[in-house]
Structures are given as structure tokens and as C-alpha cells.
Write a structure and sequence with these properties.
Helix content is 74%, strand content 0%. With 217 residues, the protein is mainly alpha-helical. It folds into 3 domains: 97 residues, no CATH class; 54 residues; 51 residues, no CATH class.
Length: 217
């Protein structure tokens, strides 16, 4: 463990001194010490803190400040932890119940980043239920890490695009039109506020924007 991590752990242990050992706040700090191997427990606790805004009771204005100052992790990491736990609770409750008992070997659990990739895969409309089951097995049974799962997910997405090139073409078209529309709106606002073009031309630009918006609805 490097010096930064050691200092971070010391800071957490200092905060734990004098706290009620039965409190949620103490429990979260305890989980944070070992979140590399017990991320699920930390994710569960952070989800409660984020959902119920419990950090305000502890003197923090927002969740970002709480996780940064009290636990010593970035908001991005904290959000991945709680999203990954929330995903398991919602989509894979059986796995939580069967595999995450107190007696389970937490060191053998999938990493939170791998679960986050699985969460993203679940929302990919191009993927079939069979694709999702395949990725889930790669994570839960074979223990693939996030990098490997991302490669698998990318390969599956490419395969689906090759199977339906027309749909892939339509997606690219929609994406391009949306980017153009966004840029056009921004330029129109700048031109209008600076009065760089006469009002009739600005109205024509607005008409074009309206037509493009109708295309992407």
C-alpha cells in the first residue's frame, strides 16, 4: 500500500475514534477501510446516505463533500459503488441473497467496476437477453475484470451493428443530426445576442432548428 493510501486509512481511523460503533456513520467508515474487498457493503450504505441525504445530519452540505472529506474517495467512485449495488439489488436480488451472506468470501466477489459495466450493458437496447446473460456469466462465474468485460461488450455491440447495418446507419444519422442541432442552437443564440445578423435571417435559422427538432423526435 502506498503512502497516500496509508494516510487515507489513518484519517478514516481517526474519524472513527469516539464514534458510536453501532451507528451507520461508523459502519460506513469501517466499510470504506476495506472497500476493495467489501465494496458491496459500502455501496449499500452509501446508497442509503445518498438516497436519504443523511450526510446533511452529519454537517455536510452535499454528497460530494461527504465522500471526499469523510471517506476519502472521489464522488465518481462513490457513485459507481452505489449504482453498482443498486443495480444488483434491483436486477440480481438472488445473487445478493445467495452469494453475499456474512460468511461469503468477499475477496472472491466481482469488482464494482465490472458490475457497473454489466449495468450499462443492461441498458443497451441493441443487446439481447442472451447477450446480457453471457456477460453476467463472464463476471459472476469466470471473474472477468472490468477491462475484459468492456472488451466483450464492445465486441457484442459491433456484432449487433453488423447484423443490422440499416439500424446502425440510422443511429449514426440521428447522432450526427443531434450534434448539428446543438451547435446550430448555440450559434443562433450567440448571433442573436450579438445582433450579428438581421432579424429575418435569424427567423430563418429558427425555422431550420424547428424542422431539425421534428426530425429527431
Amino acid at each position: 500500500m502506498d503512502n497516500t493510501k496509508t494516510r487515507s486509512l489513518r484519517n478514516i481511523e481517526e474519524k472513527m475514534k469516539g464514534m458510536d460503533e453501532g451507528s451507520l456513520r461508523f459502519h460506513i467508515l469501517e466499510s470504506a477501510k476495506n472497500f476493495k474487498t467489501s465494496w458491496v457493503e459500502l455501496g449499500r450504505s452509501l446508497y442509503s446516505v445518498w438516497r436519504d441525504k443523511l450526510y446533511k445530519e452529519w454537517g455536510f452540505n452535499n454528497f460530494d463533500t461527504y465522500v471526499s472529506r469523510e471517506i476519502g474517495i472521489r464522488k465518481q467512485t462513490a457513485m459507481k459503488l452505489l449504482r453498482s449495488y443498486s443495480f444488483l439489488e434491483r436486477e440480481e436480488p438472488g445473487y445478493l441473497k445467495e452469494n453475499l451472506a456474512e460468511s461469503a468470501d468477499v475477496a472472491s466477489l466481482p469488482g464494482y467496476e465490472s458490475i457497473d459495466v454489466l449495468r450499462l450493458a443492461k441498458n443497451k437496447k441493441a443487446l439481447s437477453d442472451g447477450d446480457y446473460v453471457h456477460l453476467k456469466k463472464e463476471i459472476f462465474e469466470k471473474g472477468k475484470d472490468a477491462r475484459e468485460v468492456k472488451r466483450d461488450l464492445t465486441a457484442l455491440m459491433r456484432q449487433r451493428e453488423e447484423l443490422d447495418p440499416e439500424e446502425a446507419r440510422e443511429k449514426r444519422k440521428l447522432s450526427t443530426v443531434k450534434r448539428f442541432l446543438s451547435a446550430l442552437k448555440s450559434l443562433k443564440n450567440e448571433i442573436e445576442s450579438s445582433k450579428l445578423l438581421p432579424a429575418p435571417l435569424i427567423r430563418e435559422v429558427q425555422n431550420l432548428i424547428s424542422k431539425l427538432e421534428a426530425e429527431v423526435l
